[in-house]
Amino acid sequence: MEFDGRREVQKTLALIKPEAVAKGYEDAIMERIIDEGFTIVRWDKMHLSQEKVQLFYREHEGKSFFPTLIEYITSGPLIVLVLAKHNAVQAWRDLIGPTDVEMAKISFPRSLRALYGTSKTYNACHGSSDPEAARREVKFFYPNINTDPILTNSEANQYIRENLEQYLVDGLTKLAKEKPINPVDWLAHWILDNNPNRPRIEIEE
Ligand code: AMP
C-alpha cells in the first residue's frame, strides 16, 4: 500500500554523523529539527560497530567510497533519531540538502549539510531516501517502533471521534486519577473491562 506523506504523519530515520557530533553541532541541529516542526520520537547517542555500519550501508558495498564511509561512520559516537512529521521523509531530506556539501552550499545554503558538512562523504547528516527505506532503517535501530503512518485525514479523524474519543477520554481520565505503576497494562485491562461493544448479560434478580 502506498501512503501519501502529505496527509499522514510519517516517520523517518536521521543520523547526525560522527564529525558533526565531534565538532559539537548536535544541539544546534536538534534545535533546528524542532524549529522545522519535526517531533523527535526517539533519539540515542551510539557508537556503531563496523558490522552494524556495513549492514546499514550494504547497498553501497563495492563502491569506491564504501571503505571511507565505514571508517568515518565508526570513527566516533553519532546520534540516531526517529523523526515524525507530515511528509517527514521528504521534509528531512530537504532540510539536510544534497549529499554533496559543495552543491548544498551553493544551492541550499541554509541546509544542514551546507552549514555543518565538509565534503561528499563527511556531510554531517543522513536521511532515509524514501518511505520504504525509512521503515527499514527505523526498524534497523528500533525494531519495536511502529512505522505505520498515522492517519490524519478527515475520514480517519471522524471515525475516531465518533467511535472512540469519549470512551478513551474516560479511560485516560481514570488512568490519570489512579496513576498505576504500569499505565499501559492498566489501560489495556480497562479497555477490555469497559468495552462498550461487548454484549452484556443482564441478570434479573
Ligand atoms: P546515501 O545512501 O545516498 O545517503 O549515501 C550514504 C552516504 O555515503 C552519504 O551520506 C555520503 O556520506 C556517502 N556518499 C554517497 N555518495 C558518495 C560519493 N559519490 N562520494 C563520496 N561519498 C558518498
UniProtKB/TrEMBL annotation:
ATP binds at K17, F65, R93, T99, R113, N123. GO terms for biological process: CTP biosynthetic process; GTP biosynthetic process; UTP biosynthetic process. It comes from the Eukaryota. InterPro entries: Dpy-30_motif, NDK-like_dom, NDK-like_dom_sf, Nucleoside_diP_kinase. Residues 9-149 form the Nucleoside diphosphate kinase-like domain. The active site is at H126. CDD domains: DD_CrRSP23-like (cd22983). Pfam families: Dpy-30, NDK. One of its GO terms (molecular function) is nucleoside diphosphate kinase activity. Gene3D superfamilies: cAMP-dependent protein kinase regulatory subunit, dimerization-anchoring domain, Nucleoside diphosphate kinase-like domain. Keywords: ATP-binding, Kinase, Nucleotide-binding, Transferase. Belongs to the NDK family. This is Nucleoside diphosphate kinase. It comes from Naegleria gruberi (Amoeba). The lineage of its organism: Eukaryota, Discoba, Heterolobosea, Tetramitia, Eutetramitia.
